[in-house]
């Protein structure tokens, strides 16, 4: 049966990197992969066309598809819009609507890119970790939130406020997802929180410990988030799977990306309870390099591989895409962000050409 994919190119470098992902899909389709795709608007381009960042038509198409592939949203021209109209709200809305609570962000160092990292080769060589980020809760969604005038000890003034909140059930489901991920790997799970200060994360730690009783084969440890940030750059290979909340996971995964050489290398899968998923690179719309054929399309292409693997159950095709990325790196193709000595400098499209050839 034909599997349906929804493509959301978004803003900035989004359309450029999505174009390379589509070429990969076209190639696999021509060789027998039974898929069809449709496009829809999200983010700033949706605001421009419809006035809202996540139009109802996009939601309808999402619900009708087996998986969603998203490039990136956002841009400085939208940063002064009312918050509900900003591109990032569209991203949060699609994640919430799809209930993709489990965001898997693997950080893998390819041997050829060891020198592309700003960290010492011996620190990063061979790194293969995965951050499991809770994606539909936490301070990102908690109420109340806002900016308003209040009476403070300094008189009447504006205050900004957000609410960090996690329910037991939200923590339990992401913990299960993380333990299951660890079971398929080296069976080590580190839960990251800030329980020394924040009640919401005290509950996080308590519930993760409760859930751990069901996974006696997984070695569980805990780390405070500030220390985790430091340990990630000091000795990242001590980790196997890291599980954490939405905000800490956002920050730690950008830091982890640099271990691999570039944020342009990190794909992600965001899964719901049934394995349906939203797939996106972890980076943003990179307005500073948009429209210049400079963006690294590999995080986007690796997101296609994750989609084939996790939602479409097409493991052989997923392996082929992953292997094609390994091949182009071994052949020396480099976009500017992953440049290494002796590398062949290419643009977005030429990197796409190389991946197609390697497929
Ligand atoms: P960013 O990830 O877009 O860019 C950070 C830096 O990394 C920039 O210097 C950029 O050029 C570089 N970079 C990112 N992706 C790259 C790639 N594929 N190849 C080469 N270099 C790459 O983060 P930012 O600048 O903080 O945010 C820009 C916009 O993107 C903001 O509007 C933000 O809200 C949005 N954003 C969207 C997403 C998403 O759609 N998932 C994620 C993060 C940020
Ligand atoms: C990410 C992004 C988003 C997030 C923003 C753009 C809403 O930074 O996907 O990592 O914070 O989740
Ligand atoms: Mn982020």
UniProtKB/TrEMBL annotation:
Record carries keyword Protease: no
Residues that hold substrate according to the record: 95, 105, 133, 226
InterPro entries: IsoCit/isopropylmalate_DH_CS (IPR019818), IsoPropMal-DH-like_dom (IPR024084), Isopropylmalate_DH (IPR004429)
Cofactor, how bound (note): Binds 1 Mg(2+) or Mn(2+) ion per subunit.
Keywords, alphabetical: Amino-acid biosynthesis, Branched-chain amino acid biosynthesis, Cytoplasm, Leucine biosynthesis, Magnesium, Manganese, Metal-binding, NAD, Oxidoreductase
Predominant localisation class: cytoplasm
Chain residues that bind Mg(2+): 226, 250, 254
Any GO MF annotation of the entry: 3-isopropylmalate dehydrogenase activity
Annotated family: Belongs to the isocitrate and isopropylmalate dehydrogenases family. LeuB type 1 subfamily.
Cross-referenced NCBIfam families: leuB (TIGR00169)
Protein's job: Catalyzes the oxidation of 3-carboxy-2-hydroxy-4-methylpentanoate (3-isopropylmalate) to 3-carboxy-4-methyl-2-oxopentanoate. The product decarboxylates to 4-methyl-2 oxopentanoate.
Cross-referenced PANTHER family: 3-ISOPROPYLMALATE DEHYDROGENASE
Stated name of the protein: 3-isopropylmalate dehydrogenase
Gene behind the chain: leuB
């Amino acid at each position: 049966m034909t599997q349906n994919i929804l493509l959301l190119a978004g803003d900035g470098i989004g359309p450029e990197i999505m174009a390379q992902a589509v070429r990969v899909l076209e190639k696999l389709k021509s060789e027998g992969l039974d898929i069809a795709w449709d496009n829809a608007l999200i983010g700033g381009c949706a605001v421009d066309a419809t006035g809202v960042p996540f139009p109802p038509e996009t939601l309808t198409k999402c619900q009708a598809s087996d998986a969603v592939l998203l490039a990136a949203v956002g841009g400085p021209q939208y940063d002064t819009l009312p918050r509900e109209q900003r591109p990032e709200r569209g991203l949060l809305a699609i994640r919430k609507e799809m209930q993709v609570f489990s965001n898997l962000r693997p950080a893998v160092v390819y041997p050829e890119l060891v020198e592309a990292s700003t960290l010492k080769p011996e620190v990063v060589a061979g790194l293969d970790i995965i951050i499991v980020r809770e994606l539909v809760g936490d301070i990102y969604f908690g109420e109340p939130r806002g900016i308003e005038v209040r009476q403070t000890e300094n008189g009447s003034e504006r205050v900004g406020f957000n609410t960090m909140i996690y329910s037991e059930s939200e923590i339990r489901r992401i913990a299960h997802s993380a333990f299951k991920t660890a079971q398929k790997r080296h069976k080590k799970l580190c839960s990251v929180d800030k329980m020394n200060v924040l009640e919401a994360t005290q509950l996080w730690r308590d519930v993760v410990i409760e859930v751990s009783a069901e996974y006696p084969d997984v070695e569980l440890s805990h780390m405070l988030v500030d220390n985790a940030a430091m340990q990630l750059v000091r000795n990242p290979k001590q980790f196997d799977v890291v599980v954490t909340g939405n905000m800490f996971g956002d920050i730690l995964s950008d830091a982890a990306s640099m271990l691999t050489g570039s944020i342009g290398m990190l794909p992600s899968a965001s899964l719901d309870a049934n394995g349906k998923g939203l797939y996106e690179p972890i980076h943003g719309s990179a307005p500073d390099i948009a429209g210049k054929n400079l963006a690294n399309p590999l995080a986007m292409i690796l997101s296609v591989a994750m989609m084939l693997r996790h939602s479409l159950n097409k493991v052989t095709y997923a392996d082929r895409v992953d292997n094609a990325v390994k091949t182009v790196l071994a052949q020396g193709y480099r976009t500017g962000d992953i440049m290494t000595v002796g590398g062949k400098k290419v643009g977005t499209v030429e990197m796409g050409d190389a991946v197609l050839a390697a497929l």
